[in-house]
Amino acid sequence: MIERDIIQKKLKEFEIMEYIAEVLDRPGYSHTTIQKTPLGEKVTIYTSKPGFIVGRKGANIKELTEVLKIKFGYENPQVEVSEIDNPNLNPHSVAKHIVHTFERFGPQRFKFLGYKMLDTIIQAGAIGGEIVISGRGVPSQRSKTWRFSAGHLKKSGDIAENFISKGFAVAHLKSGSVGVKVSILTPDVVLPDTIKIKSTIIAKQEEVLEGEKEEKVKEEIKEKAPKEKPSEKEEKVSKKEPSKKKVASKKKEEVKEEPKKTATKEEIKEEVKEEVKEELQKEGMEKEVAEKVAEEVKEESGKEIVKEVTKEEKVPTAAELAKKKEAKKE
């Protein structure tokens, strides 16, 4: 029957886990898992102190593989040791730690130990935790159950069955056996009734409050600031007005200076024209011909005369200009 085979496999796995827990019952040991792979059976031992489990040069692992082959009939067992990142969030390691302290120091201070371990679980980041210590070994006339809880822990529903991690360990004492149950709701579990507040809404509200505060501060500053007297304002205005008048007067003077320069240029041209005309008439040239020559000289050489005047050089005479004109024609 298939059911019988499944039950036999599970019983065999449970026997192997109990054997490993007895052999490797040392501080730091948590629990063991068994998986079937195509290469063989994979046995993973979880611990917070892998050095104690592996032993010197892997002696403990070698002995364990031989026992699994001979006693339990595994053909190719693969034993691995994995380290627990945060043992305070692992219920198996917490339960084992409580049991080891009971076996070493006794159960007289079980309340102190229960509250201390619960505090470490919450400080490690757990949402909630619970420790239950029960049995005849607890110091009392009869067996009692002590429950230590903190935070938020689900007791029913899908999260209580599948997401809350649970661990169990037993301490065998002279006074009797003491059982320790540990339940932890780790921070990676997302509860269905969690409420998240969006940060954007909070940021907008803060901006609005800051703007209102700034406006109030500005109004208070305006109210506290002393008002200026009318006489002081008039003095400031009177001081500013002369500067404007000075700027306007400077602009007008610049505008007036420009037409003077143009007028001097035209006067020089006219004087040159008259001098050329008089000299040509003295030489015996007719008036009409003399006027035409004078106008040509005025148009061609007027620019040169102006440039020379600006450079503060001597102005050429009319005779020299007429000679230059005749030389060009020849």
Describe the structure.
It is a single chain. The protein is 57% helix and 16% strand. It is built from ten helices and seven strands.
Short précis:
The chain is α+β, with helices and mostly antiparallel strands and 330 residues long. Helices cover 57% and strands 16% of the residues. It has helices spanning 2-23, 50-54, 59-70, 91-105, 110-123, 158-162, 199-224, 230-282, 287-310, 318-329; strands at residues 29-36, 41-47, 78-83, 128-135, 144-151, 165-172, 177-185.
Present the secondary structure layout.
Elements lengths: L1 H22 L5 E8 L4 E7 L2 H5 L4 H12 L7 E6 L7 H15 L4 H14 L4 E8 L8 E8 L6 H5 L2 E8 L4 E9 L13 H26 L5 H53 L4 H24 L7 H12 L1
Parallel strand pairs: 2-3
Antiparallel strand pairs: 1-2, 4-5, 4-7, 6-7
Helix pairs in contact: 8-9, 8-10
> Number of domains in the coordinates?
3
**Unreliable stretches covering 5 or more consecutive residues:** 257-263, 305-313
Order of helices and strands: HEEHHEHHEEHEEHHHH
Might you state the CATH topology name of the largest domain?
Ribosomal protein S3 C-terminal domain
Walk across the major sheet and give the strand order: 5-4-7-6
Q: Looking at the structure, what is the overall shape?
A: elongated
CATH superfamily of the largest domain: Ribosomal protein S3, C-terminal domain
What is the name of the CATH class of the largest domain? Alpha Beta
Overall mean pLDDT score? 77
CATH architecture descriptor of the largest domain? 2-Layer Sandwich
Amino-to-carboxy terminus distance = 140 Å
